[in-house]
Amino acid sequence: MNRKPPDRKAQAKRAALNALKRAQRMADRAGVELSDWEGEFLGSVAERVKTFGRAFGDPEKGAPGEALSALQTVKLKEIAAKAKGEKKELKRRPFRRKGKAGAE
């Protein structure tokens, strides 16, 4: 009756593949035309996750147990929002200095 603990890497891999498939299906059902880049992004990321278990090579770009990097996750959310019909852009703040250097 001893159950093995869940494999976090396998869970992350399945979750990432399901999210990629879901975004593609939503776009197809809604009739939303994804750009060539977005379609290629979904395909290439899915292929890398299937092959390697994760879609990025540099460990500094994402958490060790995750299948997608932080920026890949953001882009996937943007594509999913586009497929839903929501206009959701990446929110970025402009660079602001905290104070003038040397001025009193």
Descriptive notes:
- With 104 residues, the chain is mainly α.
- The protein has one domain (8-84).
- It is 53% helix and 0% strand.
- The chain contains 3 helices and no strands.
- It has helices at 8-30, 36-52, 70-84.
- The mean pLDDT is 83.
The chain-level mean pLDDT equals: 83
| Tally of distinct domains | 1
Q: What gap, in angstroms, lies between the N and C termini?
A: 70 Å
Which band does the percent of strand residues land in? Answer: under 5%
DSSP summary: helix tally = 3
The count of DSSP E runs of length 2 or more, i.e. the number of strands, is 0
Secondary-structure element pattern, one letter each = HHH
Broad structural category: mainly alpha
What value does the Rg take, in angstroms?
18 Å
Given as residue ranges, the uncertain stretches (5+ residues, pLDDT < 50) are none
**Fraction in helix:** 40-55%
- State the shape: extended
Biggest sheet, open or closed, and with what strands and sense?
A: none
Quickly list its features.
104 residues; mainly alpha; 0% strand; extended
Task: Please outline the helices and strands.
Elements: H1 8-30, H2 36-52, H3 70-84
Helix pairs in contact: 1-2, 1-3
Task: Give the gist of this structure.
The protein has 104 residues and is an all-alpha fold. The protein has three helices and no strands.
